[in-house]
């Protein structure tokens, strides 16, 4: 996610289901208002240190990360104590009562997570995460969940593609094709927020040409 260092004006980021463990690249995204990090590899709530400097952050989805721990109440209270401006956490609205209780039950984070550098420049946590990934069975690495990718689209309020669009593939191939398509779509949606009117017009013209080409091809096949 190092690309975020070059996107200071980005407003919505969805990185769900991506194996992310380090949130440091996000601390310069001062206009960020919505951040979706569900089901990653964030092991410590100390990573919230990098989000405390984001004045406009209102929506955070952090569920299904190792940092959530076995105590849901303590996790939620700690997040709200450090990010009291949140209006929604893990798809659940934040109440005034929770914010008050967070001052009592939450743990204040005052320093970034400790990471020991290694020779190749990776942090220890990144290296261990990568090592863990290489030991996973290949079938698990290649498995793609249609439910997960549709959930990502739901976060961005985009429309999911019907399963019958991939009817010519096997179930696993269809899901993987859907996953790849969603990754591309999510990247485009995020980067479009950085474009001005002229850039958007160029994209519109390109899309129109692409659609015309697809329609012509379908007519020829029929």
Automatic annotation (TrEMBL):
<dbReference type="InterPro" id="IPR001611">
    <property type="entry name" value="Leu-rich_rpt"/>
</dbReference>
<keyword id="KW-0677">Repeat</keyword>
<feature type="region of interest" description="Disordered">
    <location>
        <begin position="115"/>
        <end position="177"/>
    </location>
</feature>
<dbReference type="GO" id="GO:0097733">
    <property type="term" value="C:photoreceptor cell cilium"/>
</dbReference>
<dbReference type="GO" id="GO:0007010">
    <property type="term" value="P:cytoskeleton organization"/>
</dbReference>
<dbReference type="Pfam" id="PF12799">
    <property type="entry name" value="LRR_4"/>
</dbReference>
<feature type="domain" description="U2A'/phosphoprotein 32 family A C-terminal">
    <location>
        <begin position="72"/>
        <end position="90"/>
    </location>
</feature>
<feature type="compositionally biased region" description="Low complexity">
    <location>
        <begin position="123"/>
        <end position="133"/>
    </location>
</feature>
<dbReference type="InterPro" id="IPR003603">
    <property type="entry name" value="U2A'_phosphoprotein32A_C"/>
</dbReference>
<feature type="compositionally biased region" description="Basic and acidic residues">
    <location>
        <begin position="148"/>
        <end position="166"/>
    </location>
</feature>
<dbReference type="InterPro" id="IPR032675">
    <property type="entry name" value="LRR_dom_sf"/>
</dbReference>
<comment type="subunit">
    <text>Found in a complex with CFAP410, NEK1 and SPATA7. Interacts with NEK1.</text>
</comment>
<dbReference type="GO" id="GO:0036064">
    <property type="term" value="C:ciliary basal body"/>
</dbReference>
<comment type="function">
    <text>Plays a role in cilia formation and/or maintenance. Plays a role in the regulation of cell morphology and cytoskeletal organization. Involved in DNA damage repair.</text>
</comment>
<protein>
    <recommendedName>
        <fullName>Cilia- and flagella-associated protein 410</fullName>
    </recommendedName>
</protein>
<keyword id="KW-0433">Leucine-rich repeat</keyword>
<dbReference type="InterPro" id="IPR025875">
    <property type="entry name" value="Leu-rich_rpt_4"/>
</dbReference>
């Amino acid at each position: 996610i190092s690309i975020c260092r070059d996107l200071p004006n980005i407003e919505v980021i969805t990185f769900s289901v991506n194996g992310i463990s380090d949130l440091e690249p996000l601390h310069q995204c001062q206009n960020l208002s919505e951040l979706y990090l569900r089901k990653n590899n964030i092991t410590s709530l100390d990573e919230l240190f990098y989000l405390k400097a984001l004045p406009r952050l209102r929506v955070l989805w952090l569920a299904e990360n190792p940092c959530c721990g076995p105590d849901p109440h303590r996790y939620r209270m700690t997040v709200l104590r450090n990010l009291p401006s949140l209006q929604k956490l893990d798809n659940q609205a934040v109440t005034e009562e929770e914010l008050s209780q967070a001052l009592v039950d939450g743990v204040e984070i005052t320093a970034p997570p400790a990471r020991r550098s290694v020779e190749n420049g990776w942090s220890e946590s990144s290296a261990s995460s990568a090592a863990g990934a290489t030991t996973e069975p290949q079938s698990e690495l290649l498995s793609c969940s249609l439910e997960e990718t549709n959930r990502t689209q739901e976060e961005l309020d985009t429309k999911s593609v019907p399963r019958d669009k991939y009817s010519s593939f096997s179930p696993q191939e269809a899901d993987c094709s859907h996953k790849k398509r969603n990754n591309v779509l999510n990247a485009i949606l995020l980067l479009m927020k950085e474009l001005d009117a002229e850039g958007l017009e160029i994209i519109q013209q390109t899309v129109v040409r692409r659609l015309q080409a697809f329609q012509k091809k379908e007519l020829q096949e029929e």
